[in-house]
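Hi V.,

Quick status before I head out on leave. The structure for the redesign project is tokenized and pasted below; the design run finished overnight.
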């Protein structure tokens, strides 16, 4: 993985101190497109838990929850550092927001008969031991042809708007963008900037909170403070109230509602619902945008997603498969769950091979079979990477030897309206209901697929996730007393 700098030519409206568009080659666009393969949990950590409101709270809840609340040791790590199906391809990117390090996976001891590989430390091997031996993923030569990118193939240059619509460069495209902005040519200036890893992470962070991404990262002045504004409460105005098909699977929760304010104080639920919420962190952003029909409230990423499907870009992708990586990202089997209630296709994992000669000292796992192992020189044998390693589900528990596909232990939990998750405790409960002057009412809700998608959408666009997803707002607030079915409607 060669980290290098990319050059971006910015076209700026000097009178407004705003970037009109950036011009780049396919390498930079490839890096932008990789944002769609990035799981939400990784977006939260790259933005220092300071951009995605409720998801930040969800992420911090995973960090704060005691070890005893996770089914297995790797579960917390899976949520905080989720891997994604395109991570091997992303190693070819000139700048990789997923990390500038080799991939490290884990095996049991070299002499264990089970040929298992885990993407997380301390997963349980079939022999009963924990898999703690670090192995480094090495690749043969890259699959890329010279001149090809990771997702794109053409040598065209691209114009990228400040909110991430990408268009192959042409005179007409440039004039359209200048025309749309109502800019006179006399106030247009150009600026060349160099983009390294820190700049690309700054671009990613900005894209999550504002639509003036390049302006905020590269220009100084008024616009540079734009990022503070987005943190204002966002109300879902015309949110369709969900109504799941009664044949769906359901997970039951209880909403504790402040009668006077018609606001959910918290939800009381069991582990199944927490698994659903925590799973959000493992979803690649492209998967989220697809599940929400292109409208995730992450406007820049929505634009990027629409770009992949746009007509002008149709001939720019290497294959239909690379395009699928972006607009239909699949989840690894160990991130899927029948309980998550959101439909997802399973990614075909890469094949991994190791030399399993007893006492082999190599700590490399190869993506190509039958490569001569380092140990061959020492023990004079024909040691080759000829054993295909099976990927294990790190959620497999010692008690059953099976994965029941969940992350958290059996318990009762409390989730606030802005998605702070804590184990149930009376002191939390009394603190939460202390200010509900006219008391509270408990409302049971069945969560099916439509409700989960409504919650996912609200988690990205609201700070009152349950209230906005499940309570119908009263037009007049004077008599908005919630307490009987006629006043407070749950759908
Ligand atoms: Zn073992
Ligand atoms: Zn070997």
């Amino acid at each position: 993985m060669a980290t290098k700098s990319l050059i971006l030519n910015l076209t700026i409206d000097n009178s407004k101190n705003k970037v009109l568009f950036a011009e780049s080659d396919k390498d930079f666009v490839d890096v932008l497109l990789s944002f769609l393969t990035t799981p939400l949990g990784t977006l939260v950590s790259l933005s220092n838990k300071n951009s995605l409101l409720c998801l930040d709270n969800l992420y911090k809840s995973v960090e704060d929850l005691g070890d005893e609340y996770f089914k297995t040791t790797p579960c917390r790590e899976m949520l905080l550092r989720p891997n994604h199906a395109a991570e091997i391809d992303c190693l070819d990117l000139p700048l990789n927001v997923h990390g500038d390090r080799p991939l490290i996976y884990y095996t049991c001891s070299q002499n264990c008969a089970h040929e298992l590989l885990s993407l997380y430390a301390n997963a349980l091997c079939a022999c009963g031991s924990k898999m703690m031996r670090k192995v480094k993923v090495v690749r043969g030569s890259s699959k890329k042809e010279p001149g090809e990118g990771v997702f794109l193939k053409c040598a065209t240059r691209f114009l990228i708007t400040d909110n991430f619509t990408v268009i192959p460069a042409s005179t007409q495209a440039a004039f359209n963008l200048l025309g749309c902005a109502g800019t006179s040519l006399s106030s247009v200036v150009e600026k060349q900037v160099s983009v390294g890893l820190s700049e690309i992470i700054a671009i990613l962070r900005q894209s999550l909170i504002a639509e003036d991404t390049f302006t905020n990262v590269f220009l100084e002045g008024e616009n540079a403070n734009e990022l503070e504004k987005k943190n204002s409460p966002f109300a879902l105005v015309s949110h369709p109230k969900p109504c799941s098909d009664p044949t769906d699977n359901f997970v039951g929760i209880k909403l504790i509602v402040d009668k006077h304010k018609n606001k959910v104080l918290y939800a009381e639920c069991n582990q199944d619902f927490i698994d659903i919420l925590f799973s959000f962190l493992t979803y690649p952003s492209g998967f989220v945008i697809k599940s929400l029909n292109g409208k995730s409230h992450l406007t820049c990423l929505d634009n990027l997603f629409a770009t992949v499907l746009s007509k002008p870009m149709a001939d720019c992708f290497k294959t239909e498969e690379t395009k699928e990586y972006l607009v239909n990202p699949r989840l690894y089997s160990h991130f899927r769950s029948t309980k998550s209630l959101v439909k997802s296709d399973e990614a075909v994992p890469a094949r991994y091979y190791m030399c399993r000669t007893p006492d082999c000292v190599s700590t490399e796992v190869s993506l190509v079979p039958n490569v001569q192992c380092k140990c061959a020189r020492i023990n004079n044998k024909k040691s080759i990477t000829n054993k295909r390693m099976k990927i294990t589900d790190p959620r497999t528990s010692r008690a059953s030897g099976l994965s029941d596909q969940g992350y958290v232990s059996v318990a009762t939990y409390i989730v606030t309206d802005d998605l702070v998750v804590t184990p149930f405790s009376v002191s939390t409960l009394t603190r939460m209901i202390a200010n509900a002057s006219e008391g509270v009412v408990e409302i049971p809700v069945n969560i099916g697929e439509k409700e989960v998608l409504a919650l996912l959408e609200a988690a990205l666009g609201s700070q009152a996730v349950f209230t906005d997803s499940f309570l119908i707002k009263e037009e007049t607030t004077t008599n908005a007393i919630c307490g009987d079915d006629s006043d407070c409607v749950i759908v």
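Above is the designed sequence. The chain is about 30% helix and 20% strand.

G. will cover questions while I'm gone.

Best,
W.
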